[in-house]
What does this fold into?
Amino acid sequence: MPKPAFQLPFRQIHLDFHTGPAVPDVGRDFDAREFARTMKRACVSSVTVFAKCHHGHLYYDTKRPERHPSLKRGLDLTGQQVEALHREGIRAPIYISVQCDEYAANTYPHWIARNEDSSIVGRRGDTWFAAGWQILDMSSPYQEFLAEQTAEVLKKYRPVDGIFFDMCWDQPSTAQYAIAGILKMGLDPTQAADRQTYAHAVALRYLDRFYKMVKATSPDATVYFNGRSYFNLAEEVKYQSQVEIESLPTGGWGYMFFPRAVRFARHFDRPYMGMTARFHKSWADFGGLKPYAALEYETSQMMAHGAKCSIGDQLHPRGTLDPAAYDLIGQVYARVAAREPWLVDTTAVTQVGLFQAPAENIRTIQTGGVDEGATRMLTQLRCQFDVVRPESAWEKYETLVMPDGIPVDEKMAARLKAYLKRGGKLLATGTSAMDAEGTKLDLPELGVKPQGLSPYTVTYIRFGKEIAAGVPPTDHVMYDQGVRVLAAAGTKVLARVVEPYFERAWNHFCSHNQTPGDKVTPYAAATLKGGAACIPLPIFGAFARHGNYPYRLLVQKMLDLLLPEPILKVDGPTGMETSVMRQGRRTIVHLLYYAAERRAQNLDIIEDIVPLANVAVALKLAKPPREAYLAPSRQPLSFEYSDGYARVTVPEVRGHEMVVFE
It folds into this structure.
């Protein structure tokens, strides 16, 4: 009988233990039985435990000098955690820090990566005396040092459930070992691009090396390298057993990072998961406890996109878990456990492919950009979409969106032409499919004639009659510079640009802010030719920066023309998030409504769950369903089926509701 495929657990804990050498009583109060039973009571099914932390210390019984200096004599903290968790039926992958190792950096400073000016990579601020991590050069002998530690862990706990390698990004360096390696590759160490090329090559080599090390001793173990760009997955997925999307919304990532990243990560044949934390802010926020509503929302986002859930915590140096934290986690994970029958082996149902801006590394924390604006806007418009790259198989989507600045080379232009010819639809905004100056069009099918960037920083949008319904009848400000375009023959102009009297300057300006509009111009603000639409304005980036709702109205009007039969229609506030997931013959609609509030400087948080009553939902289905109900309660819903849509009314959405059509 074939062995069943491994299922990544839905309810995980990532248990940090970065403990400085000055802490005097590491592991003093550790009780293995109580540790594991606390996890069991909290409905946890997997815990990532520490063998080695960023301080470079080891937490198992070893003769190596890196063992934490105050770890209780004879205490194999890692091993006792693994053994106790296994007794409770809980998985226990092991954590190893890679490029952060304070012990190694302080003992062997020539192993530290160096910036172009030869200063060390790492530490916070502009002074040596700031607290923070020093970053190791993986082309130095440090890699062998790390390999020895890893080999010891693999031998000691063979077979391991998994290894989580952390801090694994491409690290350019001008240290002696990196320069020698760059020269050996025939590259120029004085050039930043060549240093980056070498850093990527070093990373790929050690990913391959350490992956094989783990698999040689524990063939069934999972291996994950954290810190890699999610957009390197096509090249690197062979080294990753799963994809973990680290995203602490209150820790700098924000609430749009995870839903943006997961829409790309789920393309690959790997289990994927979201990782938030129980902290009020970010990692190691001792004493910081997130409100229940926030943690419910974050895990609900994960469930809604088919992701497994991981909650980060940090064990107190003495080895004790925080009871309040695990009361909170237990409440959240009991809720996840009740929903698991409708979460296993689901796939997203989507119609729209959203191109990712090519320059962005989605592994880094970047908020407020084009991609976040596009994710936020399409979410508010209930679009069911994936994030794609030029090399992706995007021909399967009914509509493609190219936000603000997606370049189109000859190969991509040929694919887009064939896609449009077969009936596909396209919305391009800003300088997408143009050169950066807005003078050359690389996809004639858009039906516009670019005239260069507008000489005005701020202009205005006048909606045409065809798309004016429900739009306030005024000229709507566009705060950012667009492209002047004229319509080619056969192209409809659906909105026009109104330009100001003059560009605001020190020697001629009008009132407090932008110059008022003067007159409507021949330049288009929105066009449509066949299945190709163009908004020659940076509308998604502007939406991220300014939140001006007429930008969403304009995109909505264009998508209504391109995609008149969306998969899902929901009558609810714009803040409601939706997803459609398929599980065999089931189709599951997730409805999420949690209102994040700015309750502190640079901190959005959710404390209250405000219910919504009588939410109308219409799902496009090829035939009438046999039944509709709410999960996990199985409360039946009456439904109507007409015009290809099954329609129900959800009596109440309290945070997160799952509507199941079978």
The two ends are 31 Å apart (CA to CA). The longest strand covers residues 517-529. Residues 350-562 form a domain with the Rossmann fold fold (CATH 3.40.50.880). The chain has a mean pLDDT of 95.
